Amino acid sequence: MWRRGLGIFLFLLFTILGCSPAKTDLKPSISVWHWMTDRDPAFQELAKKYESLTGVKVNFELYAPSDAYSQKIRAAAQGINLPDVFGILGEKRDFASFIKAGHILDITPYMEADNENWKSRFFPKALAVNEFGPENSYGIKPGIFAVPIDIMTIQMVYNKKLFSQLGLNPNKPPKTFQELLDIGAKIKAAGMQGLVSGWGEVWMIDCLANNYAFNIMGKDKVLATIRGEVAYTDPDWIKVLSIFKQMQDSGVLAKGLVTMINKSAEQLFANEKAVFAFNGSWCVNVYKGMNPSLEYGAMLPPEISNQHPMAIWGGAGSSFMVNGRSKNKEAAVKFLIWLTDQDQQVYLAQATNNLPANKNSLSKIPEILSQFARGMDYATHPNVWGVSEFSLVIEAFDRGIQSIIIGEKSPEQVAAEVQKIKDREMAKKRAK
Amino acid sequence: MKIKNALENYSFVLPAVTIFSIFYIIPFIWVFQLGLFDWDGISFTRVFVGLQNFKEIFLQDSNWWQSMWNAAYITLIALTFQNILAFMLALACDREIRMKNFYRVIFFIPPVLSEVVVGMAWRFIINDIDGANIINRTLTSMGFGALAHNWLSDPNTALTTVALVHCWKGFGWGFLIFLAGLQTIPRELYEAARVDGASAWQSFKKITIPLMVPVMVLVAILTVLGTMQVFVLIVSLVGGEFAGHTSVPVLRILASMRGSSRFGYACAQGITFGMVLIAISFIQYRFSKKGH
After folding, report:
1. Do A259 and B261 touch (CB under 8 A)?
2. Which ipTM did the prediction report?
3. How far is B257 from chain A (nearest CA, A)?
4. Cys bridge to A160: A50, A127, A170, B255, which one at CB 3.0-4.6 A?
5. Per-residue pLDDT reduced to its tens digit, B117-154
6. Per-residue confidence at A16, pLDDT binned at 50, 70, 90?
7. Which residues does chain B have within 8 Å of residue A91's beta carbon, measured at their own beta carbons?
8. What is the pLDDT of residue A15?
9. What distances in angstroms separate CA B25 from CA A248, A432, B15, B30, B54, one per listed residue?
């Protein structure tokens, strides 16, 4: 009998304790998913520091490579089990889809609180990548939806030692496109390799082509093309496509460039086997790891026209979003405010050789990073244009440039093919 | 009693049918269903477009059919070159030759290596600027310097180079299955043929080939299914689709999913691709039955 009584007592005891409210003084634990292998040790260090300061545990979980991460984030979004903080790899339309599905918190109120205290610490171009303006074509309520952790610019770099071997001044990189072509002839004569980049993965081709499109025809005409008001068969676009033929013919481009992945390109440049590379500011850390004594400088792609300024892709390098459905969103925002504070940003820049998103943290970075940072004055990004090109058009454009480089198609042929796909996609859009 | 027997029989196959349905049939139907929608893979709303995605695949997507052709070309080389090589090596190892166990191990190393590792290794062997350039050096030293070029960046040779590397990686599977098949042929048949005065060629033609037909069909089906789905090797060898010259269906499906965020279209491509593979396997099976 007493056993039965004890059993009932224990059952009631556990039931009552189990149903009692959770202790209110428990600190939340924030989970962060990211793909940045090179930044993970620094993130872990900062997480420890944050826990010792606030008692809030931050779990940085690394999922690499970036392709696998990208799939994981999409799968988690479909299953509604995203972490408290995460990043998105993709185009602005993907970002918009996440917001529309309610996965991302609008952080504008936090950014604008206390007289824009948080917002004012960032480079405006870094924030712009994460912002949706009034009447944006994605149908998103205007606001800021992500926090830039670092910034990047994609530029050209040149090897100073190989420049000297070619009889060139290592402190005077080419300023005009003709000067670049002249160097191409010297590279060819010396049997060296010219420009290397991850053009096998195509998006970097698109990046350089857009740089020259801005330089040749200006931003307005580029955006008019995306809106379907200017055709890709326009002489200015033929000129953009012809640049790649000219570079190939002159010897500026390295052999096998169209099948080169960026990792191979980075190895070639770091091992002083290529005169130029087209790469993002993240390369500083990569080159440092591969060859600490590499002497190189960053430069803007040489201008072909002086009618419009050269533009390069830049802005937020990596950004973090707060899960709109997270019960820890307030704590997550607080952590991101702390992470983008000057001291943490200086630490991240020094530990990872990436450009800080906090503009007050730039003073303590190496000279080569400063050169990349100066490129921010010329930076633009498809994510800030407000309109985006059809992905099938981008694909046809990039594949077409590959065909031009290997001598398979002429710029005119490629332009006609791209326009055909553009017309088809426009017709489909109108029919919807 | 009859009903009881039938129920008993069904109960034995039920677990297998259930597992097969959960992991194959239902996902296949689900993917087909998704192929009828315009969906970005993220949002909770999907727009029903009927057979529009399939219509686009069949009537407008020339990149898709080019990728199918490329995969078929690699498969053709694998079916011929790879399987003939595997069969010949299996024949050699089936005989009483010295170190045959050593050869068996050596031939089976490439299939167990990761496709990424094989791709990177061969890229290093082949490439002239970021690799050892061994092939071009060998050609030059043999007096064929005119043939030396960048095999992976030339649109005329990129796909064939990929196909040959794929054959190198894949022939070990065929070799193992062929060898297992050859070892099931009773030795008495060969001895009887020899007693009857049959030559080695006649024994091969009249005993080995007919008895190996089922194994050949199996290897052919596995080769087709494995080769049509190749893509990791291509990414590690040439970085991707290389202006369409090394594009294959799986890369196109990935491009639709990740590049264009068209999950519905990618599902339709997956279903189309799956149906093509099922049709090829079925035709091969029917042919082998007829031949038998």
Report:
1. no
2. 0.81
3. 10
4. A170
5. 999 899 888 887 766 788 888 888 898 888 888 888 88
6. low
7. 261
8. 63
9. 51, 33, 14, 9, 20
Question: CB pairs below 8 Å between A and B: how many?
Answer: 92
> Testing the interface with A: which of B31, B42, B156 to mutate, by most A Cβ within 10 A?
B42
Q: Which residues of A touch B63 (CB under 8 A)?
A: 395
CA distance B176 to B170: 11
HSE-CB for A291 with a 13 A CA cutoff: 14
CATH code of B260's domain: 1.10.3720.10
Alpha helices by DSSP H, listed for B1-61, are 2-20, 26-34, 52-59
Whole-angstrom distance, CA of residue A309 vs CA of residue B290:
71
Cα(A101)–Cα(B43) distance, rounded to whole angstroms? Answer: 5
Chain B residues inside the 8 Å CB shell of A261: 239
Phi, psi dihedrals of residue A129, rounded to the nearest 5°: -60, -30
How does pLDDT run across A252-289, given as a tens digit for each residue?
A: 999 889 989 888 899 999 999 999 999 999 999 899 98
Q: Are B183 and B95 in contact (CB under 8 A)?
A: no
Best to test chain A binding among B153, B161, B262 (most A CBs inside 10 Å)? B153
CATH code matching the domain that covers A29-151+317-371, chosen among 3.40.50.300, 2.60.130.10, 3.40.309.10, 3.40.190.10: 3.40.190.10
Amino acid identity for residue B140 in this structure: T
CATH of A153-313+387-431, one of 1.10.150.20, 3.40.190.10, 3.30.1370.10, 3.40.50.11750: 3.40.190.10
Q: Domain ranges for chain A, please list them.
A: 29-151+317-371, 153-313+387-431
* Structure token pair of residue A50: 């944050």
**For residue A256, which residues of chain B lie inside 8 Å, CB to CB?**
127-130, 150, 152-153
Chain A neighbors of B150, CB-CB under 8 A: 255-256
To probe the interface with B, which of A195, A203, A258, A273 has the most B CB atoms within 10 Å? A258
SS3 A319: strand
What pTM value is reported for the model?
0.84
Q: Which residues of A touch B60 (CB under 8 A)?
A: 424
**Closest C-alpha to A131, from A117, A147, A116, A118:** A147
B44–chain A Cβ distance below 8 A for any pair: yes
Cβ distance A74 to B42 less than 8 Å, yes or no, reads yes
In contact, A247 and A181? CB cutoff 8 Å: yes
How big, in percent rounded to 5, are the helix, strand and coil portions of chain B?
A: 75, 0, 20
